[in-house]
Each structure stands twice: as structure tokens, then as C-alpha cells.
Amino acid sequence: MEKAKYIWFNGELIPWDEGHVHLLTHTLHYGLGVFEGIRCYNTPKGPAIFRNKEHIERLFNSAHIVRMKVPFTREELRKGMFQCIQANDLKECYVRPIIFYGVGAMGLNPLNNPVDVAIICWPWGAYLGEEGLKKGIRCKISSFTRHHVNIAMTKAKVCGNYVNSQLAKMEALEDGYDEALMLDVDGTVTEGSGENLFIVRKGVIKTPPVIGVLEGITRESIIELAQDRNYPLREERISRDELYISDEAFLCGTAAEVTPIREVDRRTIGAGQPGPITRHLQEAFFKAARGEDPRYEKWLDYVE
Ligand code: PPE
User: Fold this and answer.
1) Residue range 138-188, pLDDT digits in tens
2) Best probe residue, ligand 1, of 195, 215, 258 (max atoms within 8 Å of C-beta)
3) Is residue 157 annotated as part of the catalytic site, yes or no?
4) Which of the residues 5, 69, 91, 157 is marked catalytic?
5) CA–CA dist 108, 114 (Å, integer)
6) Of 2, 89, 140, 166, whose CB count within 10 A is highest?
């Protein structure tokens, strides 16, 4: 990865190379921490964080779900992000706030540990590759089942939830695919290892409801962009075979942005290249994020 110069840690900027934690950091052992993935895009009016309010809200909701007390306010974290982006002289970057239990008491009760907060920013290019963004990626239905809603709290972006994603991702890559798609316990399609899924079939855009999948902020943006363009859209369960016969499919997320899917399990999706609705929404998304469409300026939080 590309390093930056500073990290925001508990309210102060520290040099990147000093961003260490103790080996008894509770979250390192047991995975109870919450985080966000946010992107800052360069716009004609300078760098702006895309949908920052919604990301900060989800971070606090994640903490609320797992009963973590955040020792900073929403506004302090927002200012911390600005500080971090400016100190690193970045125009476009990924922003990773993480709230974790530090050192205090081992054992499964996390509540006797201090809560630490870091904000890390670094330049991060196309998550699934430049070529993937343009031509589409190849996905594999994972042999790993997605979380059951009462096993992992899937509306919370909890560190430990990502073990399931990592198992699926490694398997997909080792089997020669770009990304994994996971089925829930009932066998319906949920999401990628770190992205929400959309399909297009017979002119209707469909995405699985947010039960058992992360309530993606890019997903929400895509829904709004699609509705503003009068595309019929339904949030409904999607079966594996419906995915195979969809006309178009794409993944979306902060890191993955809008990445078309051209193949699933060796079955070509549509014409084997990004379809027209996918391309239209991808373009609309990038224009909105880069401040090139005034209708969506409400989504931009300018770094000041
Ligand atoms: N589902 C999952 C499981 C997920 O992790 C993400 C984000 C999404 C959907 C899309 O959510 P949103 O970013 O709000 O649109 N995954 C983050 C982590 C990527 C990583 O490798 O780290 C991200 O995209 O930032």
C-alpha cells in the first residue's frame, strides 16, 4: 500500500511509522472493534468526503450495536478526518476510522478496556482493478455462507465480521476469480466480500434487502441515482440461478465504487461486458462523487 505521512490517533497526529499498538490490544485478540471505509474525491471545489455524515452515523450505530462507548463526538471525528487529509496533503484518498479496545484486561468481556480511536488516510486506487472497473470482473459463489443475522450483527461494521469475508475472498482468488459472492443460510444471494450486489433483469434493477447484508452507503446512493433516472428498482431476494440469467450485474461499495460483473461461476452475465444500465449508473456515481453533478452536491463534505 501507499503510505501517507500522518495518522490521527486519539485526537493527535502522529507520524505514520509510529502508528503502533500494544500486543495485548483487546480487539487484536477478539475482533470487537468497529470501523468505516470512506472515500475523499477531488472535486472542482477541492477535496470532498463522499457522504461523510452517513458514514459517521453508521460508525456510531455500529458502536451502539456492540455497546462500545466512543470517546469522541461525531464532529470531533469529522474534524479529525479533515486534519488527517490536510496534514497528508491528499486530494483523493480512502479514509479509515477505526474504534477499538486497547490494553487493559484480557478475557471476553471487553468493557474493562480503554476505547482507542484512529483515523488513517491513504491513496487507494481501483479496489478490484482499473480493468475490472472498465470491463467487469469474474465472481464465484462462495462455499462459505454469509452471516446469519443473529450470529453477526450485520448492520454493524465490526472487525470480526470480516473473517467470513476474508475466507470467501481468499477462496475466490485462489480459484482464479476476482471476487466472492455469498449466499445466506437460505441459499439466496447476499453480497460480495466487501460490496453490495445489484442485478438487472428484464429492465428491472434488483438488489437484496439489507437483512444480513451491510447497509451500504454506495448501495443507497445507487438506489437514489437509479430512481432519479426513472429505472424501475426493487429490493428483493435474488436466487443463485436468477443471478446466472441476469442481463447485467454489478458490485458497489466505497472501495469497489461501481464494478461491473461479467461472469459468475463460469456463466457469462449478459453479453460478458458491462451492460448499459450499469455503465449509466457507474458514470452517474463518479460524476456525483467528483462534484460534477450539482444535484448531488448534498452528498459532499468539503475538507476545510
Ligand atoms: N458489504 C460489505 C460486507 C462491505 O464491507 C462493504 C464496504 C459494503 C457492503 C459496501 O458498503 P459502503 O462502503 O457503505 O457502500 N466495504 C468496505 C471495506 C473494504 C476493505 O477491503 O476494507 C469499503 O468498501 O470501504
Assistant:
1) 999 999 999 999 999 999 999 999 999 999 999 999 999 999 999 999 999
2) 195
3) yes
4) 157
5) 14
6) 140
